[in-house]
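Hey, can you fold this one?
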Amino acid sequence: MSKLSKHLTLVSCMAILSVLGMTPVVSAQAPQYQSGDISIVAAAADEPVRKKLSIQAATDYLSQGSQAWTEHRKCVSCHTNGTFMQLAPSLGRMFNDQLEEHRKFFLLESSKFKRAPVNAIKSGLKPTQLAYVASGLAAYDEAKGKLSPETKETLDLLLTVQSEDGSYSNLDCWPPYESSSYHGATIAAMALASAPGYLKQVTEEQEQKIRTLRQYLQTTKPPHDYARLLLLWASTKWKGLISEQLRDDTVEMILAHQQDDGGWSIRTFGTPDTWGNGSRKEKLNAEPERETPPSDGHQTGFAVMLLREAGIAADHQAVQSGIKWIKSNQRDSGRWWTRSLNTDGPHFITYSGTFFSLRALQLCGELDQVQEVAAD
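Sure. Predicted structure:
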């Protein structure tokens, strides 16, 4: 049994520790992810920090967490398997086996959307959920270098559920993901732009919808600084989406948010009033760390990842400080802790935070040796 597997079974050992009069260090909440033989301990602020960075622990957490979500929940979520399919294809051979299984599930979800009446998938969260399905399939094709017929059909469908203003309907209830139609629009933009050759073979009607989406993103004010990062991310896929000046201004904004310890905190990128249209205002205002929120894995990984993808050198002082934070703040489970903006329950944002951190390490050349070993 691997070191991580032993840790993932810790939940089942907590009762034994209690009988022996010992207090378990990790929270005794329900597992964060659970399905079949997979049981990943609850995410908690008091989970011990690893003494040494482990890429294997991170990849095991990510692959098992997404597998458990897919098997148990049987849906595509922004924070878990949606993030997996967005980023796993860019990490080479690390997730090869899991990628194929995830793609099969995403194709299954796509087929369900295709069978449903268009009006049934134009409201609530469904358009953004479809955008994540399309984005995952497009990322897979991008890594392979060829657009598949299934991905093209999914992107064609995605354009039919676009709102009149060019956005993609979302909910206000679960920031930072299910919290604005602006977010949905950035995911749709990344899906359309990253699919190999898709934009060159659209119909005139589809081209008009794409222009409407581009205009929406270019003229709509982002609801908070976090959304400005989403726009920057979309622009790294869709060349010409934003001006060089806006790109530079966004980079400066990211640098200005960096904290003294080298990390970033998601809570400084939006006020309680703006996260999810104020849906989490009461919770966020009541947090004891309201005035001095600590750096977290999600925002630190996201910031470093975007700085690199925006062209900032790996040896830039801010980037190196962020990488140092990432390398010294991994938890025993392999993830990077981030407190949820929504509830102090599963803290699923630790999943995206772990993928963002892994991608940040890759973009700074920290995974080269690991990839060489995986290729042997």
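The longest strand covers residues 33-35. Let me know if you want another pass with a different chain boundary.
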